[in-house]
Amino acid sequence: MIGDRFTGKNAVVTGAASGIGRATALRLAAEGATVLCVDRNVDGLVDTLDEIGSSHFYVTADLGRAVDCSVVISTALDHFANQIDVLVNAAAVLIREPLLEHSRSTWEHTLDINLRAPFRLTRDVVASMIPRKVKGAIVNVSSAEVVLPLRGHAAYTASKGAISMLTKAAAFETAPHGIRVNAVAPGVTATGMNADLRQTNPKGWDEMLSGTPLGRNAEPDEIAAVIAFLASEDASFVTGALVAADGGWTLH
Amino acid sequence: MTKPDSEHNARPGLEGRVVIVTGSGRGIGRGIALSLAARGCRLIVTSRTPEDLDPLVSEIENSGSSATAVVAELRDPATPKRLVEASLDQYGRIDGLVNNAGVNRLAPFWLQPDEHLDEIIDTNLTVPFFLSLAVARHWIDAGVKGSIVNISSTEDRIAYPEQAPYAASKGGLRTLTRLLALEFAEHDIRVNAVSPGSIDTEMTVGDIRDKAAELIPAGRLGAPSEVGACVAFLLSDDSSYVVGASLLADGGYVLQ
């Protein structure tokens, strides 16, 4: 049921070269948004743009760098005549390492991409919305692992717990300005983040699916549909929420 | 995870246990250190500020227990190893770790500088992680059990204004507690958290102190010793089957 909820809206989507980010860019564009697609992977960005059409934009960025986060926002404000209506923080990394071997570089890189970048982007987008009285919406991508952590995912799990509370804190402070901040907590979703796992460890993948009461993984567009809802006026009274989209994974 | 020695009997307490308490020079950490010392623990207490540690060590030693001060910058990657070695040098063992040290910086969310985020995430999330790994490595290598208690906050689940980086750090710490608990359980290492509300320390100022009777269902601020008692429980064998818990000590604040 694709509507036209984003007609005339300007959206920034990170991680838009693949997976949930790309599916979100497609969905928002299909519903009328003009989208600035952000990723490190320029080939993937070009593919996304090929699919959504030439009225959209992309910018390559290494979101682990503070300066790149600033460039993303200034590029968006330039392209969008100073009005950003929607920000979706979908870019993320997952580095699997046995707990006792978790390195400082894994920890810091994961927090840079999964926590500090969404923090900076959300902060700067909110700072652009408040003086212009834009009643915008921000959607973060958390994880079902906030409820049920997985072994070997220490840095990832910590980053997702942090982004979940950042969502609530940002929602609480920006609500008086009519800005909403929410998060989706996906379960097992077929994306590039776990493509290696599906190929090298199909048994492990099947175990994850067997832990999902719906008995299958999500496709990225099913998560994008929840993100689009949270970013849209359909969710006009929803703020600070962490919406599970996990096929029942966290029920047991 | 080993079963307790006896059932339905009063368990031995914390007498003689060796516990590292970070950030113990002031505030809640000081209260935790005094609570543990009063229960017979021997302590490694840390702070950046030696002037805060000296009176604490004197107070603990005057009460008949033992404490060793380690002046440490916790964000230094060399510190975890130093603290483990200090405890082993001084007492020959470690039984518990309390990740208490924390920092907060107030500003409207959209004005929070990167420096605040970095300092808060480093101190409140990264430091507990790598210190937990260092202590757990020692326990696993030595084949002994241990207990880790992370001091979180009610802000690991509810939002307060002008504290977005702090909220993120505590949300991360709560989730990290669950992951560490899951992964270390098979090594007989328990990991839990205490989430204090508004506690009566020199750092507690403003409305929450002036209007505590109205703002907190319990009608008052919490005492540092009341956080210390929760920590003592989670360090002790009374909580031998408590894994990954997050124990609120907030006078009912989050209920309203």
Low-confidence stretches of chain A: none
Low-pLDDT windows of residues of chain B: none
Count of discrete alpha- or pi-helical segments spanning 4 or more residues of chain A: 8
As for the CATH topology of chain A, it is Rossmann fold
Succession of helices and strands of chain A = EHEHEHEHEHEHHHE
Can you list the strand order of the major beta sheet of chain A?
Answer: 3-2-1-4-5-6-7
Biggest interface, CB < 8 A: A-B, 41 and 45 residues
The amount of helix of chain A comes to: 40-55%
- Report the span from N to C terminus of chain A: 30 Å
How many DSSP E strands of chain B? 7
Oligomer: heterodimer
Largest sheet of chain A: 7 strands, parallel
Strand order of the largest sheet of chain B: 3-2-1-4-5-6-7
Describe the protein in words.
The complex is a heterodimer of chains A (252) and B (256). Chain A has helices at 19-30, 42-52, 66-79, 104-132, 154-174, 195-200, 202-210, 220-231, and strands spanning 10-14, 34-39, 57-60, 86-89, 137-141, 180-186, 242-245. Chain A is an alpha/beta fold and 252 residues long. Chain A has a single domain (10-242), classed as NAD(P)-binding Rossmann-like Domain (Rossmann fold, 3-Layer(aba) Sandwich). Chain A has a 7-stranded parallel β-sheet with strand order 3-2-1-4-5-6-7, sandwiched between helices. In chain A, strand 5, helix 5 (154-174) and strand 6 (180-186) form a beta-alpha-beta unit. In chain A, helix 1 runs parallel beside helix 2 (42-52), helix 1 crosses helix 8 and helix 3 (66-79) packs parallel to helix 4. Chain A starts with 9 loop residues before the first strand and ends in a 7-residue tail after the last strand. Chain B is of the alpha/beta class. Chain B has 8 helices and 7 strands. Chain B has helices at 27-38, 50-62, 79-91, 114-142, 164-184, 207-210, 212-215, 224-235, and strands at 18-21, 42-47, 66-71, 96-99, 146-151, 189-196, 246-249. In chain B, strand 1, helix 1 and strand 2 form a beta-alpha-beta unit. In chain B, helix 3 crosses helix 4 (114-142) and helix 4 packs parallel to helix 5 (164-184). The radius of gyration of chain B is 18 Å and the shape is globular. The model of chain B has no long low-confidence stretch (mean pLDDT 95). The chains are: A alpha/beta (252), B alpha/beta (256).
